[in-house]
Write a structure and sequence with these properties.
- By secondary structure, the protein is mainly α.
- The chain is 69% helix and 0% strand.
- The protein contains 15 helices and no strands.
- Helix 9 packs parallel to helix 14.
- The longest helix has 39 residues.
């Protein structure tokens, strides 16, 4: 059975081809490198893990509510459309929203895998090539992870969101080596990291929480990589070159805002798309969700030096300018710590279970 047989909306078999642009760059300097990037490369090697073994795949998932969250977090909860749905129809909607959400995570990770490989090819510095190679391995693991989660626990896929596809194509088809960095490491990865965090913290399902927490542990390093590499380079740009990157950031951020509107679900379910989008736009819960989505992007964009009036105006228009004050280092340290605590709690539970088995065996032998 092919994945193509499980898409909610038909997807043509074959590849999505994005024309390559730009040079492949080699460096014959092997000794010099930025210490912080080389430290990040070492962490990337040390933190490799196996998605087949670290995740407890035996944990159950309700495909109609993969996150295990309350109905009130549905984007159209309380709307006219929501109220006319029967309970079976609401469960069906939940199935499609679960499939759509994790499908977008999956497609984004394949994009990240491709961009990481592109960075290895195009970046001029050996220290960046080293780290990007570890990121390519991370992203392959994430594609494996989300693909298995959807296949085994949800059973339904959605096509790639058009706004995500456009930003990926724009980043990959640009001949300048830094644009894939900016599009993926800062915008796409930054938004995904924030979305993972919101969903991880809300999730009532233990398996979904594990998947997101472990992916976030890797993604925190990836965003740090983009910051380190681009901060140095952008400090040397001319005003005109910096303005071009800021224009790319502004367009990319509007695309990323549209990425999580679930338009494809409303359309597939036969709902009034405009009505659903309008309700979601005004929903306090969804407004809070959208503001959190930019909590990783905005401080990162400011940190790398793309903080001109056009960028600030766009963030004010999106209602996320205050996110510039977020302590990105502290937030991403917490992402890593949450994943480590999850491992410790799981190890402690397994040890307690083994001790209980031994105690039971001893008691049985003595009786």
């Amino acid at each position: 059975m092919s994945t193509y047989d499980h898409y909610a909306t038909p997807v043509e078999p074959g590849t999505w081809d994005v024309p390559a642009a730009g040079a492949t760059r080699f460096s014959w300097e092997y000794d010099n490198g930025r210490s912080r990037l080389l430290d990040l490369y070492q962490r990337g090697k040390d933190k490799q893990w196996d998605a087949a073994k670290r995740v407890d795949w035996e944990l159950p998932v309700d495909p109609t509510n993969a996150m295990g969250i309350s109905d009130e977090f549905c984007p159209i909860y309380g709307s006219r459309q929501w109220e006319v749905l029967s309970e079976p129809e609401r469960r069906d909607l939940g199935h499609h929203l679960s499939a759509w959400l994790f499908s977008q995570f999956l497609h984004g990770e394949q994009g990240a895998l491709t961009v990481a490989a592109r960075i290895v090819e195009s970046v001029p510095d050996m220290d960046s090539k080293f780290y990007a190679a570890t990121q390519a391995m991370d992203e392959a693991r994430h594609v494996e992870l989300f693909s298995r989660f959807i296949r085994e626990k949800i059973g339904l896929y959605y096509p790639v969101n058009p706004d995500l596809a456009k930003l990926l194509a724009d980043a990959l088809s640009d001949s300048r080596w830094d644009l894939p960095y900016l599009g993926m490491q800062v915008l796409i990865e930054g938004l995904a990291l924030a979305a993972f965090g919101v969903q991880r913290d809300m999730a009532g399902n233990p398996l979904a929480k594990q998947v997101l927490a472990y992916v976030m542990q890797d993604e925190a390093r990836h965003v740090a990589f983009g910051r380190l590499a681009l901060r140095d380079y952008y400090a040397e740009l001319t005003a005109a070159e910096r303005a071009e990157r800021e224009e790319f950031v502004v367009e990319g951020c509007y695309l990323m805002r549209n990425r999580f509107l679930a338009r494809e679900v409303w359309d597939h379910m036969g709902f009034d798309v405009a009505e659903c989008l309008e309700f979601s736009e005004k929903s306090p819960v969804q407004q809070a969700f959208r503001s959190l989505l930019f909590s990783r992007i905005v401080p990162c964009v400011k940190d790398i030096g793309l903080w001109g009036p056009k960028v600030q105006h766009a963030y004010a228009d999106l209602g996320v300018l205050d996110a510039a004050q977020v302590d990105l280092d502290a937030v991403m340290r917490e992402d890593e710590e949450i994943a480590e605590r999850m491992d410790q709690e799981r190890d402690a539970a397994e040890l307690a279970a083994r001790r209980a088995e031994v105690d039971t065996a001893i008691a049985d032998a003595q009786s």
